[in-house]
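User: Hi! I'm working on a homework problem where we have to compare a predicted structure to a textbook description. Could you give me the structure for the chain below?
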Amino acid sequence: MARLADYFVLVAFGPHPRGSGEGQGHILQRFPEKDWEDNPFPQGIELFCQPSGWQLCPERSPPTFFVAVLTDINSERHYCACLTFWEPAEPTQEAVCTEDAAGREEEADAGGPVRLPPAAAVPPGQLFAPKTLVLVSRLDHVEVFRNSLGLIYTIHVEGLNVGLENVVGNLLTCIIPLAGGSQRTISLGAGDRQVIQTPLTDSLPISRCSVALLFRQLGIANVLSLFCAALTEHKVLFLSRSYQRLSDACRGLLALLFPLRYSFTYVPILPAQLLEVLSTPTPFIIGVNAAFQAETQELLDVIVADLDGGTVTVPECVHIPALPEPLHSQTHSVLSMVLDPELELADLAFPPPTVSTSSLKMQDKELRAVFLRLFAQLLQGYRWCLHMVRIHPEPVIRFHKAAFLGQRGLVEDDFLMKVLEGMAFAGFVSERGVPYRPTDLFDELVAHEVARMRADENHPQRVLSHVKELAEQLYKNENPYPAVAMHKVQRPGEASHLRRAPRPFPRLDEGTVQWIVDQATAKMQGAPPAVKAERRTTVPSGPPMTAILERSSGLHGNSARRLEVVRNCISYVFEGKMLEAKKLLPAVLRALKGRAARRCLAQELHLHVQQNRAVLDHQQFDFVVRMMNCCLQDCTSLDEHGIAAALLPLVTAFCRKLSPGVTQFAYSCVQEHVVWSTPQFWEAMFYGDVQTHIRALYLEPAEDRDPAQQVGEAAAEDERSALDVASEQRRLWPTLSREKQQELVQKEESTVFSQAIHYANRMSYLLLPLDTSKSRLLRERAGLGDPESASNSLLTSSMAGSVAESYDTESGFEDAETCDVAGAVVRFINRFVDKVCTESGVTSDHLKGLHVMVPDIVQMHIETLEAVHRESKRLPPIQKPKLLRPRLLPGEECVLDGLRVYLLPDGREEGVGGSAGGPALLPAEGAVFLTTYRVIFTGMPTDPLVGEQVVVRSFPVAALTKEKRISVQNPVDQLLQDGLQLRSCTFQLLKMAFDEEVGSDSAELFRKQLHKLRYPPDVRDTFAFTLGSAHTTGQPPRATKDKGPSLRTLSRNLVKNAKKTIGRQYVTRKKYHPPSWEHRGQPPPEDQEDAISVSEELEPSTLTPSLALKPSDRMTMSSLVERACCRDYQRLGLGTLSSSLSRAKSEPFRISPVNRMYAICRSYPGLLIVPQSVQDNALQRVSRCYRQNRFPVVCWRSGRSKAVLLRSGGLHGKGVVGLFKAQNAPSPGQSQADSSSLEQEKYLQAVVSSMPRFADASGRNTLSGFSSVHMGGHVPSPRARVTTLSNPMAASASRRTAPRGKWGSVRASGRSGVLGGDVGSRLAGRDMLAPPQANGAPPDPGFLRPQRAALYIIGDKAQLKGVRPDPLQQWELVPIEVFEARQVKTSFKKLLKACVPGCPALEPSPAFLRSLEDSEWLTQIHKLLQVSVLVVELLDSGSSVLVSLEDGWDITTQVVSLVQLLSDPFYRTLEGFRLLVEKEWLSFGHRFSHRGAHTLAGQSSGFTPVFLQFLDCVHQVHLQFPMEFEFSPFYLKFLGYHHVSRRFRTFLLDSDYERIELGLLYEEKGERRGQQACRSVWEYVDRLSKRTPVFYNYMYAPEDTEVLRPYSNVSNLKVWDFYTEESLAEGPPYDWELAQGPPEPPEEERLDGGAPQSRRRVVWPCYDSRPRAQPDAISRLLEELQRLETELGRPPERWKDTWDRVKAAQRLEGRPDGRGTPSSLLVSSMPHHRRSLGVYLQEGPVGSTLSLSLDSDQSSGSTASGSRQAARRSTSTLYSQFQTAESENRSHEGTLYKKGAFMKPWKARWFVLDKTKHQLRYYDHRVDTECKGIIDLAEVEAVAPGTPTMGAPKTVDEKAFFDVKTTRRVYNFCAQDVPSAQQWVDQIQGCLSDA
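Assistant: Happy to help. Predicted structure tokens:
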């Protein structure tokens, strides 16, 4: 029972004490005057009576009523019902407010209640003051309050004859029941009567219509977002002009939150004076009058709901998490069904006439029912996650949040997470968690209706009926009795407030009222307390929880099989079947990603623990720990699936004996997981264990069982859960004696205490690292690392804050370095102990004891660990796979023995079994070795399903381009490891993670050694040199004196001389003046002949003074003559070495030894080809005009057109001085610059005149002209000396003098990089230039004359500006734009990244093509081929070309070499290509060491693959002309690999000069004896070629005159497979000795019972080397031949001899047959276009077929797809190699007319039907030998009668037509007559049926 009203208060307007314009309320009277003991008088009522402020108003307003809510310090709510009316203001009140009347009026209008116009006359200027009657109550009966206050007001206004004191006294003494559904009638003694109904259950909120109104005002979505905001503790503010609406809205929102209670600030009506409350940091629900909306604008984090406007505004910075799906959408749809029932029927054709809509009160309950269902669904099964920590004296209950979220499948859900962490839920747990209490509707719902709700989910009508059922119950709770119309309360008459009141509200007599109150109190004390006994019961737990949304279990669909695997693996481990277990382990580790498998693992391991201990051997221990680690690595810090909880007892149970008395437990190996440093995890675990023990305490001994039952698991049926036990105990508690109660409390307390000690131990186990000296581990852990944050996170949620503070206020953590591990762990454990012990009621004495104990526990454990750590170090390491020693080359030595590493996948997906299929070879476990020559990884795949495959990946140390440290996951136990990524320019990548046994110092040593080997200080330290020395050390020094001066001493002398002369040359160069020797321009004296008859004149200042060569020089000369250059010059007829001078003079060119001391140009060879007419001393001067002194020399001459190809460095730009002179002195004097350019001009003139075609004196016929388009407007006259772009003045002047001039130098005119007129047309994609025609007409309208210049100079656009054009126009400049070496370098880097990405790609293949395009590598190759083809054409048409680009040793070398390769078939042979590389690349000084960064000095310049780019160009040409090259594509790859490998000395150093200096060039013949390792790559190739045809191209069938003109568009270029292929079986295949693998066992061993086993084997892409696993047919046959010969005991013949014999025989066999050449593979008379498209020897995956694929779509060579047609075509062509005479193949032949392709006429052809080859062939006529076409009968689908079409033979019968339909097209045929047509059809069909 409770008082209906606690206080009655009269509040009136009074002046403001500070005299401001506003007034303030003051209390006139209050009853009772003394406070009730149980309920003090609430403060601040004056403010809440007039929330908008106390103001006078100029007219009478009707009375207003609203209820404000005040909350006291004990969170009790007081309802203040306020009825306000207005009375005329007294003079004193008016005086206050005369100032600022206008402002006050505005305010009153804005803030006061709605005014009505006055009906009665009011004296002008009369003001009215508000007065308020207030009723204060703790009960919420709004209507009763309204009636009671109304009655008092009516008595006053109407002047009824009733004493107000009596009414007030009766009101204050009225007592009504609180709850229980009783009905009570009350009367206040004024003839009135009211009925009060109390709700059935107190716990359900009373909402009347407030919820329905809230939805009407705001709509579904807005209310839902307010609901979520209130639950997730956001600030909510309501705005309305009506106070009653504000109260209702707040009441409605609170009703929706049931069963949670809102525990933050709740003020439905906030007075204007208190608006600053809105900026409080805590959450709130507050209502404010809309008049103050402006003041709420600047609140940044408040959600504002405008009830009048129906809007909800959520600020940007606030995120309201939504309800989890599917609950959100379900709730939304049910709400709309309730609010708008007509929506369902809106589309019906025949809607029912009326829809019964619920009354507002009923709709209110329906809406609440929807939210009640929502909470039941959200919190379903919550009781299974409650932990009973204490039962007596008061229940202490904790909620296992993580388990709840995990089992509901809502770990990620933001909404539920926030709700569970909120204060409202904490209140819910402490209130509703109690096991023995009264239950209400929600308890029933969550326990019994969940299954029904789940079943109804997809049936809206069933959901609606359930909602209506619940609504009925809620309605009945509020209105237990049918509505009784028994209220009888007087009301004032209409407009009574406008009548002039007789008097102000009277002052009541306090004594009377007090007397009435006292009377009632005395009566109450006498009466017995009417306590209604509460019905308390055990709260039902309901069914165990399920996931809110069944996740699709596709990922672990076959979980039963997975669990089986886990169980098997564990049983194998414990049975000691380690091999079996090892096989299953990877599958188990994969399965453990699934939750079920992790649970299964924990359960299975539990079975193997006896008496809390399981001792394992080392291998078993290792397996168990690995599986545990794998389980724990996916655990979040919350451990929501209870995996860590299940494993916690196990990690302290499994152990192994390290030595007598030292045992290592599993916990020391599973500490690296975040879950162990999470306080919440430990708390949940602790409370779970406490619950188990407390339950055991109260269970009967018979029922007692092993307490280690898993937490949160449903107990078996016969057992009672902890909540049941607790409920029973709470029921019995009052009946127990005092002593018994004390005893139980004590038992429980000591249970908790012992668990706390137990947990302090457990935590020290898992937090102290095995090696306590390493504090690293702890600092990295979340909870311990940053102790400041840790303490915060622990204390915020803890109610034990104060206690924890006392122990932990000092933060001794500033310096994490000095912070010792033990200290950190002690603090962590102490914080935990404080929190749990305070919460679970451990006595303070016990708590202090614990604090003393913790440091000792930790210290003891550290001491134990030290012994374990010491012993574990002595353990033999776990049996890791045996390290596989790599095979080494002879002379290759190991520098660093194997470091254990894991080789990780690097983005090339073949190795990991990507889209290409195949096994996952990577990651592989093995070791990395560093040798003097290579970095080698050997190992085995970690995936045991792959089998025992050895994985090898290696590259030469010299090829290393980038090395970087990385941090990667170890693929086995997923821990982060240090790693190293090595990238090489041979397109290998080693991405390695070091095993944990490899210390950081070993890894560092590896890096240092690698660096030392990669960049040796001197080239002599490279492998190519050390290899030789290693082998010769054992030999005794040989005496070489007797042989005369050896070549080596000679070369030393030579270098000395060269050094002297070069030194001198540099000195002379500084003082250089135009030469003034007498014989400067004279021809050399006739009589000075030399022993080598090479005309030479030595310049006195630079060369050795004596003209007769010393004997040593002669030796040098003879060895120079042996060089490749000389041999080639003699082959080309460019110079002679005969002794008769007369012949030498007739030759246009000569070999000059001017550079034999390398004095003129260090980077040129010793002998050079120069024009016959140029003297040696002039060369010295000419060389100064060119960069690096590389003056133009001839390197090749065309045998047909006699045009020569020259090369040089680019021109020097003019010096600054020269420029000034040129500007200031218009008349060209004999200045320094001029003299050298004169020399240069003379030299070029000499070159031109040495060419036979241009030898006549006039030189006029050499002029080539271009249309003015190509000339850019500069048309100099024939006389003009100099016209360059840098001198436009002269150019324009010359144009004025000779406007008719028609020739000029080629210029880049406006278009960038035009290559001259003819050149431009070629590059624009037109066809090859036609040779000049006989009648002199130009081949192209763009040219004025067919004549070309005698010499084209191809130079860099930027450099050619300073070059003078030839006065007689005998040479022309072709400026082109070329890329620089650094562009090649960057492009190559990108190419490397594209081909070997380094990390696995996220998206599939387009990424490769995109990065390939970005690298611009193919674009550069396109440019090179384009320029080369241009030069080839110029040479072919008879003009000579000088290539003068950059320094003359990079791009110049590339272009010159390509030109020779394309023009001269000799260079396409093995010998020729070697000569080409030796001459152009080695002798002419391509800087291999510099570009390859071979030594420490070159490290900064980086790797620039100029030579590799050249090889790529050759490969592109090889692809287009496969029959023109004697060498195979493998040869190019071999050179590409070894030019960077530093295995051979060939590609070391930058020039011949440097090679001589090191004594490399002329190595003495006597040294090469015995099995010495080859020093030269050529020697190696020769040796290898004798043994195997690997470098030979079987399709080599050259045409002697063929000049190759490859297509150079990027679309025609293919990515070289050298960049992309790899074989992991043996590493790169270019070191032949290593690549050959171990020999296979001989056939005899394989015999098993007489029959040989199948020799089938699987060939894996990326693992096996395909050419070796599946050699092409010819290689296979040659191998077979050798094998048979060996078996027969004959000495095997060399493969080359066999091949040549077969080839010759086949050529001869074809001759006797009258039809001409056989259709042999080696046919050399194929038309050019076919040859260029290519005849490919397929090494595709189809098997060893020789396929002549002549159409371009098949020309992808080694990547041929082996599709059906290709296979068919290849089989058909196979016959032609073996059957020479074709007569026997002709089954039927004759003439047929055949309709040509579209728009072509009918033609008679000779057709041959060949049953053997299954073909229909046709020829032009009967004796024609060349087949014009083939129809493959395998492709024929039907033969049908045909009809004559347009152009068919007229005389033939219609029935003689027939059609042959193939898969590709339909052929129309016509025979001579009907019988022959029938015969053909029969024959073809017979052929088809035979097949």
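For your comparison, note the following. The first strand starts at residue 2 and ends at 3. The two ends are 108 Å apart (CA to CA). Good luck with the assignment!
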